[in-house]
Design brief:
Trna Endonuclease, Chain: A, domain 1, single chain, 2 helices, 6 strands, alpha/beta
């Protein structure tokens, strides 16, 4: 197994009890990923509502939903990915 050292800042955003971005990854190359994490086998527009709402507030960010859904799909501005594929997308 290879270990890759990547300088990233990890945070989250909670606006109120119902509005939260699970993970924000800021990479050293100025890339920003807004990430929603779901354990579901099927993702749809309800799962990415919060990302859709806050996405415009982050300049040059990429919005990603990671889940157990095996199908890669685009839901509005959000790229929904199987979690393994999403990890590769973020950290490669």
């Amino acid at each position: 197994m290879k270990y890759k050292r990547t300088k990233c800042v990890f945070s989250y955003l909670r606006v109120d009890d119902d509005s939260e971005i699970d993970l924000i990854v800021e990479k050293s190359n100025s890339e920003i990923f807004l990430i929603e994490i779901k354990s579901k086998d099927h993702t749809d527009e309800r799962d990415v509502n919060t990302l859709q709402r806050f996405f415009p507030d982050f300049k040059n960010a990429k919005a990603i939903c990671l889940s157990n859904d095996p199908t890669r799909k685009k839901i509005g501005d959000v790229l929904a990915l199987p979690w393994q594929e999403g990890i590769t997308e973020i950290f490669d």
